[in-house]
Amino acid sequence: MKISRTRTERAVVLRSIEYGDKDLIVTFLMADEGKRTAIAKGGKVSKKRFAGSLELFRVCDVTYSEGSRKDTMAILKESTVVEDFRHIEASFDKIAIGSYGTELTRELLRDGEGQGEILDALVGFYRRLHHQEEHAARLEADLHTFILHLLGLSGYAPQLTHCVHCGLAVDQGQRLLFSRRGDGALCQPCRDSGQSTLDTTAPVLLTLAELSTGYADIEREPVPVALLRQGRQLVFTLVRAILSRDLRSYSTLKMVMP
Ligand SMILES: [Zn+2]
Predict the structure, then answer these.
(1) Of the residues 66, 151, 152, 205, which has the fewest C-beta atoms closer than 10 A?
(2) Ligand 1 centroid vs 185 CA: distance in angstroms?
(3) How far is CA 207 from CA 44, 132, 147, 194, in A?
(4) Do 146 and 68 share a structural domain?
């Protein structure tokens, strides 16, 4: 016998795609259930049941029913916005950066994963972008902080302060490299022949290490653009190594981080 149950929980929208003329298929990161996809019948047209809640940058309370099997799509009954981030939605740069962070979260998680710290990290990232001034270097630093934090929570933290092979501190290294496998810094003598690497420097690695510990103090001078640009190459190399491809939102991100 098929049992269906209805439940309500806090959730963040990870993606919303049109399905037919009226429906939406929405992927959420839910407080209890983790990543979960639901169909919102009439989601494109029903203002009453969903009230603008099925878009990116929304924290919602969602009510849905599901069958007895975990792998079937949930049916969304109702959704209301609990928190939105208007200063993200008013800025092309913030939308591009926020969309990239959201897509990365979605792609790193399997269904049923992501409750707790990852959900908190994503909401924290939106709040940070919402309050951050419209300043390219500060916004980019925030993106790197979020990516490195998320990768750490997902078990992909790169080694940034020491050579992954011999443990030499990067500020002691003569010539430094970053492994395209995504595991972290390498000193020149530890590079295997044929291993694909990027050249880097101790200041770049240590800047990323610093950003990975938390959002930069807003009172302080922003991280120099030259360091961010070099750090960016390592961060996106890391994402590419983990996912084996670039994210869709990367092409838009490149427009705001030229
Ligand atoms: Zn080494």
Answers:
(1) 152
(2) 8
(3) 44, 20, 14, 28
(4) no
**225 CA from centroid of ligand 1 (Å):** 28
Q: Return the DSSP state at 15.
A: E
Number of domains in the chain: 2
Question: Is the alpha carbon torsion for 171, 202, 101, 196 positive or negative?
Answer: negative
Q: Output the domain CATH number for residue 54.
A: 2.40.50.140
Residue 70's pLDDT is: 61
How far away, in angstroms, is 205 Cα from ligand 1 center?
14
- 17 with 56: CB under 8 angstroms? no
Residue-number span of the structural domain to which 134 is assigned: 87-256
**Ligand 1 mean position to 209 CA, how many Å?**
18
> Ligand 1: distance of its center to the CA of 245 in Å?
27
Distance between Cα 6 and ligand 1 center (Å): 55
**Predicted local distance difference test score (pLDDT) of residue 71:** 65
Ligand 1: centre distance to CA 195 (Å): 13
pLDDT of residue 52: 87
Strand 34-40 versus strand 58-66 pairing type: unpaired
Question: In order along the chain (258 residues), what is the average pLDDT of each group of 10 residues?
Answer: 79 96 95 94 88 94 80 89 97 98 97 94 98 96 98 96 95 89 92 90 96 92 94 96 95 94
